[in-house]
């Protein structure tokens, strides 16, 4: 069973951008005016390649066998037992092998999100004699305590650490990481470059 984590905001905005691009490409083809249309298509192509590589493709995927880190131009697979440690700053850094580090592109924590998490984790001071806030159920209270002071990136980092420790307890083999190029991102980038060349040559 796979679990994927990504930036929801970037993902939604990327699909909005793709819808915008689809409409503009149709309009440029329907009302083709020569070089001006090619230049506009080239600009849209370059921006779309960037949006795809940076906003749509990156994801952190949990599988039964290990962790898959999909970054803009590379995909790294780490068996759970291979993971030595996990640290979280603005990104999740997965330490493995001979002092190697996999930096995951998503989820990331901004300074604003971290400050908000720290405020959420701080104890609230009650003002007045009467409680005005609604009482949380036991499950809601445990969820609040679990996330107290943590960002989404912190929580995902904890999940990676727990799975790695469980794999080591089961004495799973720590096989080396597997890294492969992202051919889809490269293809999109090549198509964008081809549009730029066509706009310059024609």
From TrEMBL:
The chain crosses the membrane at residues 12-30, 36-55, 179-201. Residues 57-89 form the Low molecular weight protein antigen 6 PH domain. It comes from the Bacteria. Keywords: Membrane, Transmembrane, Transmembrane helix. Residues 114-135 are annotated as: Disordered. This is PH domain-containing protein. It comes from Nonomuraea mesophila.
